Amino acid sequence: MTKNLSNLPIEEKERFLDSFDIVQTDCDGVLWLLGNPFDGVERAVRALRTNGKRVIFVSNNSVRPMEDYRAKLDKLTDHTVDDDDIIHPAKIVIQYLREIKFDALCYVIGSTNFKNYLKEAGFQVLDGPNEPVQESARAVMASISDGQAVKAVIVDFDYNMNNVKLLRAQLYLQHDALFIAGAMDTVLPLGPRMRLIGPGCYVEVLQNIADRKPIVLGKPGLQMSKMLKRMYSIEDPRRVLFVGDQPEMDVKFGHISNYQTLLVGTGGVKEEQLKKFSDKPDITPDYYIESFAALEQIVREVVVYKARNGDKSGP
Fold it and tell me: CA 124, 130, 131, 133 torsion: positive or negative?
């Protein structure tokens, strides 16, 4: 059963804060919405870090360039964030391709930034078509049956997604190309009443038609989880708290990783809605709190409690 963190007795709040060393947190819907930071987030980040917690920022949004992540997180961390503490699908995909020593042509469905990161990392990228094709089977077949020696199909979010791209990816997958997925969000929440189709829908179409399961390098992928544990030398996953706003992506990723999970309400999922997840333990969070900013109060309460009880060593 999910516990409302704000309503716990101080003894349980103390046990909660002492139970993890690393916070991995989603960004969109948790730290900001449409690029605008939620009030108080920077104070919560500072309180966690000041009290010995490492904060790692894990996003499925690779449309936003790394420079933008760095600029936003610099403001939230007093310009002390390290690039090693910022994770998004393009970064994980590049790391994975390097680990398997991949050196061939990739067909990539994704944003311009996503494709540019792959190119800058030295990978051969084929994409498109982005322009409309003639509406005839012959014209479409000429576009998708190009004979290119594609050895990997990589699918992430693409604002300019079209049917021909899916058809092209399908043919490459039928010729045994590696199948890699970045972000797996089927829904992109832009507000309480605005929920758009996410890239996970494209992945599902290809998975079904090609009868192939992808290597998932975005949340909630197991392969991504394994890579993060190696990257951050995580030996005890229960000492990690994953914070997110979407049960299907963030909470599921936390459980797959065997982390503790905390759902915040700023992404549109409120505490009373968690009842409908009672038969779905993989997306039911361990804890709930109204906002990431509210963690500052939890930290402050525990600090005061420890001080009153003569414990100067804890948070």
Answer: positive
Measured distance CA(41)–CA(129) in Å, rounded = 41
Are the CB atoms for 218 and 248 separated by under 8 Å?
no
Measure the CA–CA gap between 59 and 225, rounded to whole angstroms: 13
pLDDT in tens, 225-266: 999 999 999 999 999 999 999 999 999 999 999 999 999 999
Cα–Cα distance, 209 to 168 (Å, whole number): 12
Q: How, if at all, do strands 124-126 and 32-33 pair?
A: unpaired
- The strand pairing partners of 241, in sequence order, are 23, 260
Helix (H, G, I), strand (E, B) or coil at 25: strand
- E strands along the chain, which residues? 3-4, 22-25, 32-33, 36-37, 54-58, 86-87, 105-109, 124-126, 150-155, 178-181, 187-191, 194-197, 215-216, 240-244, 260-264, 287-289
pLDDT tens, position by position, 23-49: 999 999 999 988 789 999 999 999 999
Distance CA 244, CA 92 (A): 19
What is the C-alpha separation between 250 and 267, in angstroms, rounded? Answer: 11
∠ CA 144-200-45, rounded to 5°: 135
pLDDT digits (tens, 9 = 90+) for 177-223: 999 999 888 887 666 677 778 888 999 999 999 999 999 999 999 99
| Cβ neighbours for 25, distance < 8 A, ≥ 6 positions apart | 31, 55, 56, 57, 58, 242, 243, 244, 292
Nearest to 73 by CA among 63, 84, 134, 152: 84
Q: Residue 106 pairs with which residues in a beta bridge?
A: 125, 152
What is the spatial distance between Cα 298 and Cα 51, in angstroms, rounded to a whole number?
12
